[in-house]
Amino acid sequence: MEPSERRVAVVGDDDRASELRDAVRNAGGRLAEPADPIDEAEADTGPAAVGGERPDATLVVAVGDAAVRDAVVAAPRGTVIPVADRRLGFDRDGAVAALRQLLDGSETDDVVNRVTHPVLAVDDGAGTPVRTAFDVTVVTDEPARISEFAVEFARGREESIRADGVVVATPLGSDGYANAAGGPLVEPGGGLAVAPIAPFSTRTDAWITAERVRLTVEREGEPIALVVDGERRGAVEPHRPIEIEAVDRVAFATPKGGRERADRKHSNNS
C-alpha cells in the first residue's frame, strides 16, 4: 500500500493530537475520520460487533487515556497507536517516529513493536455487558471496609479473598490501579493481572490468568461497587457472579524496548 493510501485517524483533543495530525500530513498519510464507537446498549459484545460496514482507518492514533479507551473498545480493523502516560504508550516524539515507520511500511526501524491487545466484556448478570480496555474493579463503597470475594479462574480453580476489593487488568492497564494494589505488570499476550485491594491477610497472592475470570461477592453487608475503566457502573449484588472475558483483539503498536513510568497512576476513581 502506498503511503498516500494509508488512512490515519487521530483522536483526542489536546495539543499533541493537533501536532500528530500535522505529522501524518508531513509523512504522506491521509487523514480520515475514526470509526464510531460501539453503542454498548445496542451492540453484541462478541466479534460480530466489530465487523459491519464501519470505515475504519488503517492507523488510529489515540491521544490520552480516554481516547485510547474508546479506540480499544471500538475494536477498529486498523492498528491503534496509543499516545498516553502508560508503559505501553508512546510520548509525542515516539508517536511521530512510529507514524513515520508505519506509513513508510518499514520493517527495519527499531521504534515499534506490533502486538495485539484484548477487549474485555464485563457481564454482571443485571444488564447489557460493557466493554473495557484497562481494568475492572469490584470494591467496597467505603474505604477500609473489608468484604469477601471469590475469584474463579478459567480452568475451574477458585480462590477466596478477604479484602477491600479485587482488580482485574489487561496488559495495557496492568501498570495502573492493579500495579498500585500489588499486581504484576503484564506484557502483551500475557493474560490478565488479578490482585486483591488492601487484603486483610499480610500474605496474599496476585495472579496472571488466561483471558477469562469470574468474580463473586461472597458476603452480604458492605455495599460493593463495580468500576470499569475508572467509571462506576453500579452496585454489585452478593452471590451474583461477574463474568470478565476477552471477546475481541485489537492490533497495537507499542514502543520497542518499553517505556519508563514516572509514577503509578490509578485508572479507578472510586
TrEMBL record:
Transmembrane segments: none
Region spans: Disordered: 26-52, 251-270
Keywords, ordered alphabetically: Kinase, Transferase
Protein name per its UniProtKB record: ATP-NAD kinase
Stretches with biased composition (Basic and acidic residues): 257-270
Kinase listed as a keyword: yes
GO BP, one annotated term: NAD+ metabolic process
Recorded GO MF terms: NAD+ kinase activity
Source organism: Halorubrum persicum
The keyword Transferase is assigned to this record: yes
Source organism superkingdom: Archaea
